[in-house]
Amino acid sequence: MLKRLSVILIVGLVCFSVNAQCKRFTKKKCFSELGEYVFNGQLNTVVLSSGEEAELRLSFYSKQGYRIYTCAEEQLGDVDFEIMDTDRNILYKSKENGSKIFDFKVPSTQQLIVRVIVVREKTEHALDFQGCVSVLVGFLEE
Fold first, then answer.
1. Contact, 69 vs 136, CB < 8 A?
2. Torsional sign, CA 70, 133, 57, 89
3. Burial zone of 134 (CB within 10 Å; 0-12 exposed, 13-18 middle, 19+ buried)
């Protein structure tokens, strides 16, 4: 029982440490890209490796101006993102538009899915780097 508790405690501390590192990275490197948009207060971060992806569902309110910005640590290489409706219809692909920033308004209040994808790099070495990926959402104050 004590051994199991130790393993749980160690895993919890590692997760807390990684989460704290991602928060520091995001605060230091990413917030400035929101520009005149006000950060919505939700810090969405995840640690990913080459070839991995993650999704999150976010609510957006009608006629409100929004900016979504994806920010990733350099060692990950290219990170793309897609915006989909709940039927999984793709509304935006950063890969096609060449931008990590997407500014938009929704006609009605709805949930959207944001999928971030760490592009698998073709390398000669076997190392797979991990790094923080953050999805920031800002809104325009009217």
1. yes
2. positive
3. buried
Each residue of 50-105: pLDDT tens digit? 899 999 999 999 999 999 999 999 988 899 999 999 999 999 999 998 899 999 99
Total number of domains constituting the chain: 1
CB of 12 within 8 A of CB of 20?
no
Residue type at 66?
A: Y
Query: What residues contact 40, with CB distance under 8 A and at least 6 apart?
Result: 137, 138, 139
60 in Cβ contact with 112 (< 8 Å) = yes
CATH of the domain at 19: 2.60.120.380
The strand ranges marked E within the chain are 38-39, 44-49, 53-60, 65-72, 79-85, 90-93, 101-105, 110-118, 130-139
Domain enclosing residue 17, as ranges: 2-139
Q: What is the pTM of this model?
A: 0.80
